[in-house]
Amino acid sequence: MKPKVLILCTGNSARSQMAEGLLRALAGEHFEAHSAGTEPKGSILPEVQEVMREIGIDLTGQSPKSVSEYLGKSVFAHVITVCADAEEKCPAIFLNMGTHEHWPFEDPAKADEEQRLETSRRVRDQIEQRLRLWLTEQSIVSNFHHQTS
């Protein structure tokens, strides 16, 4: 059985969704990727969906989920928080599971509308770099490569 990874942020509408999609693309054969939010929003940001499509990852069918959906139901080998707010509000039960890492990234949802696409691209690339480093630490090499326009 593949180890489960939970990626947490506040709204589960941007950073954690990008990280879940990227982890699935980079190492889906090694890990079962999940994401959730401490205060989930109604939908994934359109800009986030767009920047993920640009690199060949389709988030259609994914939607923001509450961290409470996993409480008492799943055991995670790795819990990664991608924002300070989730780090503070994450139920302690998850922080006591497996390995816990905190990778703070800027929130595209808080960017001005005209900056949101650019911010989403930058954060996507930062998350991918951090995930690739983490996979290297796990002795996993990814075959996922994307074209950037």
Q: What's the β-strand tally? A: 4
Helix content: 25-40%
The count of domains is: 1
The CATH superfamily is known as: Response regulator
| Strand arrangement, major sheet | 2-1-3-4
End-to-end gap: 37 Å
Output the structural class.
Answer: alpha/beta
Uncertain residue ranges: none
Structural descriptors:
Rossmann fold; alpha/beta; 5 helices; four-stranded parallel β-sheet
Topology (elements, then pairings):
Blueprint: E1 4-9, H1 15-27, E2 32-37, H2 46-54, E3 78-81, H3 84-89, H4 92-95, E4 99-102, H5 116-137
Parallel strand pairs: 1-2, 1-3, 3-4
Structure overview:
With 149 residues, the protein is of the alpha/beta class. 36% of the residues lie in helices and 13% in strands. The chain has a single domain, classed as Rossmann fold (3-Layer(aba) Sandwich). The protein has a four-stranded parallel sheet with strand order 2-1-3-4. The model has no long low-confidence stretch (mean pLDDT 89).
